[in-house]
Amino acid sequence: QVQLVESGGGLVQVGGSLRLSCAASGRTFSSYAMGWFRQAPGKEREFVAAINWSGGNTGFSDSVKGRFTISRDNAKNTVYLQMNSLKPEDTAAYYCAAGRSGWYVGPGLTSYDYWGQGTQVTVSS
Question: How far is Cα 60 from Cα 50, in angstroms, rounded to an integer?
Fold first, then answer.
């Protein structure tokens, strides 16, 4: 069992930056792939970014590529999402997810086994 707790959300102006963190419990964090998803009101949950177990491979949605980066610190059981050049359309609840298939960096929701409760990001124009 893995428990995930996101933090770092908040209100930011257009063009600003935020860094989200996701702290994981459990001794097997380093074997999991980690992903970030987001969900805006009235919309489906969508993939943002993912990183494999070692941090050596990442994946991003086209909408955030070049603006967001994902990283992990296995010693701290934490994954990060650095968000730059934020836009109003980035406003959403952001969720951290962990997948037992440690190599996977794709967008499939069902490939992730554990989910956090989410942290709200609001970008004001």
Answer: 7
Which pLDDT belongs to residue 21? 98
What's phi and psi for 21, nearest 5 deg?
A: -125, 150
Question: What is the C-alpha to C-alpha distance for residues 18 and 53, in angstroms, rounded to an integer?
Answer: 23
Q: Which of 15, 7, 12 shows the shortest CA–CA distance to 81? A: 7
Residue by residue, what is the 3-state secondary structure of the chain? CCCEEEECCEEEECCCCEEEEEEECCCCHHHCEEEEEEECCCCCCEEEEEECCCCCCEEECCCCCCCEEEEEECCCCEEEEEECCCCHHHCEEEEEEEECCCCCCCCCHHHCCEECCCEEEEEEC
Query: Is the pLDDT confidence value at 1 over 90?
Result: no
Q: What is the mean pLDDT of residues 26-45?
A: 94
Quick one: what percent of the chain has pLDDT higher than 70? 100
CA distance 28 to 1: 9
Tell me what the mean pLDDT of segment 66-90 comes to. 97
